[in-house]
Specification:
Radius of gyration: 16 Å
Protein name: Disulfide bond formation protein B
Order of helices and strands: HHHHHHEEH
Structural class: mainly alpha
Low-confidence stretches: none
CATH superfamily: DsbB-like
GO molecular function: electron transfer activity; protein-disulfide reductase activity
Number of strands: 2
Strand content: under 5%
Main location: membrane
Strand order of the largest sheet: 1-2
Function: Required for disulfide bond formation in some periplasmic proteins. Acts by oxidizing the DsbA protein.
Family: Belongs to the DsbB family.
CATH architecture: Up-down Bundle
Number of helices: 7
Helix content: over 70%
Largest sheet: 2 strands, antiparallel
CATH class: Mainly Alpha
Distance between the termini: 15 Å
Mean pLDDT: 87
Length: about 160
């Protein structure tokens, strides 16, 4: 697959995953926690950067930004999995939630960026916890973006 086509695929997957998050929140009534919202920001950053890389002649800078966002999302999903594995650690209403809910994006688009759930309570979809799915997707995006950047260096 060509690097630009891969970037478009990554962007579309990220936007699709945001759509799944919206469905789970607004139709299945699953409340997003602070780590979920951070992962949404990361998916959007990966998607937007990958889309910019697709539409520009140089994919190096947008690809690197997307890669950094994917690694950040991987870290956020990993934190979320740690919290689930150690419920006494907790998350709930914490400084991260307060910070996220005070961001302008939370006020402009609360349907997407407002946090009001507890991190310890992750629901399962198709046999895996939601943060496990996020971790898997961010891992795939990290590998694909690293491959894309390495391949673009050779050309």
């Amino acid at each position: 697959m060509k690097p630009r086509t891969l970037l478009l695929s990554i962007a579309l997957a990220c936007f699709g995953l945001i759509g799944v998050a919206m469905y789970l929140q607004h139709v299945a009534n699953l409340a997003p926690c602070p780590r979920c919202v951070i992962q949404r920001y990361a998916f959007l950053a990966v998607g937007i950067a990958a889309l910019i890389g697709y539409f520009t002649n140089s994919i190096k800078i947008p690809g690197a930004v997307a890669l950094l966002a994917a690694v950040g999302g991987l870290f956020a999903a990993g934190q979320h999995l740690y919290i689930i594995a150690h419920p006494s650690f907790g998350c709930g209403i914490d400084p991260v939630e307060n910070f996220l809910n005070k961001l302008p994006t939370a006020h402009l688009m609360p349907f997407l960026f407002e946090s009001y759930g507890a991190c310890e309570h992750a629901d399962m979809v198709l046999g895996m916890d939601i943060p496990q799915w996020s971790f898997l997707w961010f891992g795939l995006f990290t590998v694909a973006l690293a491959w894309t950047l390495l391949r673009s260096r050779k050309t």
